Structure formats: structure tokens, C-alpha cells
Amino acid sequence: MLALGKSTTTAHRKYVWRTLAFMGGYVAVMVATILGAFDDIQGKPSAWILAAAVTAPIVGQIWATLMMMRDSDEFVRAVTAKQFIIAAGVAMALFTGWGFGESFAGAPHAEGWLIYPLFWGVQGLIAPFVRSTN
């Protein structure tokens, strides 16, 4: 979905640029976090601002996907929606299964934010196989 050179529609080009912008913001905040820019606030109530700052680009990227769907033709919209729903369902099922593994089988803890990269990983795996609206 992010192949800029292959963008043939306005909706897709906008999606690519919006995704790059939002993920650029995400990367900037995460790099600053990794480099210790926010070490003084971690564990304090003000750290919720950091959590919101990292979450905002994620929300923006989901919005970019929804706008791409809105601005696309009905076939692309339907296929993308089907891929999105299947990926969300599989990611939730896998993450829930892992959570039960933590509760019942002593599996190591997985941070809640991992659901987002898991979703997009599943999306990337299933997208080549979900190419119709049937």
C-alpha cells in the first residue's frame, strides 16, 4: 500500500503522504524517547502527555486509511474494508490468545501497544490473498 511510485490514484497518493507524515511524527517522538528526552517524566502523571503524543500519529494513520477508503472507488473501498476487518479480527484473536497464554500458561508479558504492529503485520500477510469482495 505504500508504494509511492505505483500510486495511480489521488486517493492512494494522499494516503501515502499522510501515512509518511504521521509515521514521521511517530518516529520523531519514539527516537526522542529512546534517546532519553523524556526519562524525567516517565512514571509520573505528566507521562500521559507522552503517551498521548505517541498515540496521536497512530490515530492519524488510521484516519489516513479511512480517508483513502472514503476517496477510493467502491471496489477498492470494499476490498480494503474486507482486508482491514480480517486483519483486525486475526490480530485481536492472536493477541487475546497470547493474553490467555500469559494468564494460564506463564507466557511472557506482551505490551498492549503491540496490537498495532501486529495488526499491520497481519494486514500485510493477508492482503495478497484477499483481492475480491466475495
Number of strands: 0
Gyration radius over CA: 17 Å
For the sheet with most strands, the description reads: none
**Low-pLDDT windows of residues:** none
Tags for this entry?
4 helices; flat; mainly alpha; 134 residues
Write the layout of secondary structure elements.
Layout: H1 10-34, H2 47-71, H3 74-105, H4 115-126
Helix pairs in contact: 1-2, 2-3, 3-4
Describe the model:
With 134 residues, the chain is mainly alpha-helical. The chain has helices at residues 10-34, 47-71, 74-105, 115-126. The protein is flat. The protein starts with 9 loop residues before the first helix and ends in an 8-residue tail after the last helix.
Give a quick summary of the entry.
This protein is mainly α and 134 residues long.
